[in-house]
Design a protein that fits this description.
The chain is mainly beta. The chain is built from one helix and ten strands; from the N terminus they run αββββββββββ.
């Protein structure tokens, strides 16, 4: 009789372990099936992760900060083991030593988690004090503290509007270079 009770209890324990495993530990599909990932994102060995509302905050030194947020992100791992985050619905703030923020928003961005370099793409908007810059691409070179804005650049400010191919902002030297890609093309400025 004692062996029968032990056998029944052991069977019940096994049953409950299987039952709880299926309910709490079995992999569930966490990705919404209607979600469409852009086709140029490469999935490598199923190690990528989707994260909603991702935020990185980096201290640049000398009271400078870099904060980047995204609505949806996919973390990818490259062959060299570096981590690149493909972001959608991106907002970022670069705070300079004078505590004046440069606000950036775009539809897409690629953020390298090892060197913090970020490439913003598609409907990029940069706001600094009373100045706004619109473009299709912006690259933040973290190591050299340079912002490169390019592809259909439009500047709107208190003095007027400007159309150019490139704007480079050096955050260390507080220097801005505005130029065109070709020698024959000129920067167009329309004053108010």
């Amino acid at each position: 009789m004692n062996k029968v009770i032990k056998l029944i209890l052991f069977s019940l324990i096994i049953f409950f372990i299987i039952f709880f495993y299926k309910i709490y530990f079995k992999n569930k599909n966490l990705v919404d099936e209607d979600f469409d990932i852009t086709p140029n994102i490469v999935v490598e060995e199923n190690q990528n992760n989707l994260i909603k509302d991702l935020k990185y905050s980096i201290n640049l030194g000398q009271n400078n900060k870099y904060i980047i947020n995204s609505d949806l992100s996919e973390i990818t791992y490259k062959i060299d083991k570096s981590e690149v985050v493909n972001m959608q619905g991106v907002t970022a703030i670069i705070i300079d030593k004078n505590q004046i923020p440069i606000e950036v928003s775009s539809e897409l961005a690629k953020y390298n988690n090892s060197n913090y370099e970020t490439l913003f793409e598609k409907n990029v908007k940069i706001k600094y004090l009373n100045h706004e810059i619109f473009s299709n691409a912006m690259q933040f070179d973290f190591e050299n503290q340079i912002i490169k804005i390019y592809k259909n650049v439009v500047y709107n400010g208190t003095m007027g509007h400007m159309f150019a191919d490139n704007i480079d902002i050096n955050l260390i030297m507080n220097k801005i270079d505005i130029y065109m890609d070709g020698d024959k093309k000129k920067v167009e400025l329309i004053s108010n």
